[in-house]
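Here is a protein:
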Amino acid sequence: MRFTKMEGLGNDYVYINAFEEQVDDPARLAVEMSRYHFGCGSDGLILIRPGVVADFCMEMYNSDGSRSEMCGNGIRCVAKYVHDRGLTDRTDFTIESGGQVKIMHLNLNPDGTTHSVCVDMGTPELDGAKIPSLAKGNPVTGCQLQANGRRYVFTLVSMGNPHAVAFVDNPDTAPVTVDGPVLERDPLFPNRANIEFVQVLNRRHARMRVWERGTGETMACGTGACAVLVACVLNGLCDREADIDLPGGTLHIEWRPSDGHVYMTGPARFVYDGVWLK
C-alpha cells in the first residue's frame, strides 16, 4: 500500500490516497504505522477520500487509533497533496473533516507547487456544553482544574475539536508532558480535550506548547493555535490577528470580526513517499 509522509510545522502524519488505496481497518493501521522504530513514526494517520458534501474528505486517526474530528496542520497538508499531486488544479476548494466543511486557499510557489495554505476554520464554538464539556457558560473563561497539585485556569474553545487554553509564565518550563495527560482526561471533558500552555508576548504575538489528546505533545497543533488566539482575545490579551509560535514554527491566525471566522495560514511539506508491506 502506497503512502506519503507529510508535515506541517513538524506535526507529521501518514497520508493515504483513498481514491486509489483500500484501507480495511484504519484505526489499527494508525497505531501500527505511527509507531517509532517499528513503523513510520508519526502523530497519526489521515486518509484522503472523495468528498460527499465537499470537494475532498479528510478522515483522521490519532496515533493511538482514536478518531479526531479535525487537525489544522493535517488539513493544510491534505490541501497541498490534492493540488500538487494533480487531484485538482484549483487553488480554492473545500475539504470535509469530522462533518465540517473547511475552505482552502492555496498560495503557490513560482513553480506552481503549494507554498502555504490559508484555511477558513469557521466560527469557534464557545458554549461550554457544545465544546463539549461539563462547564457552564458562553464563553467559559475561568474554568479551574488541578493536575498533580498544580492549579490552572482555562478558557475553553472548540475549533471542531475541544481545547482548553491556560496562560503560563513560560511554556518551555510548563509541565506539559506531566500535567497534559491528566488534564486531557479530566472528567470535565466527556470526549477528552487538547491542552494548550500559552505565554502572551504582546498583542500580536504568543508562544505555546500543546498536549494533544490521543497523541501526546506534538510539534504543532493548528486547531490549538486557533483556539489560543480566540482565548487570548476573549481574555483581552491579544488583538484579533497574531502570530502564534509553536515548537515546530509559526502560524498566522486571524479571528475576523466581519464574519466571526478564524483563518489559519501556514506551510505544508512532503517528507517522503513509501510502500507499506505489512
Notes: The two ends are 9 Å apart (CA to CA). Residues 72-84 form the longest helix (13 residues). The first strand starts at residue 2 and ends at 8. The mean pLDDT is 96.
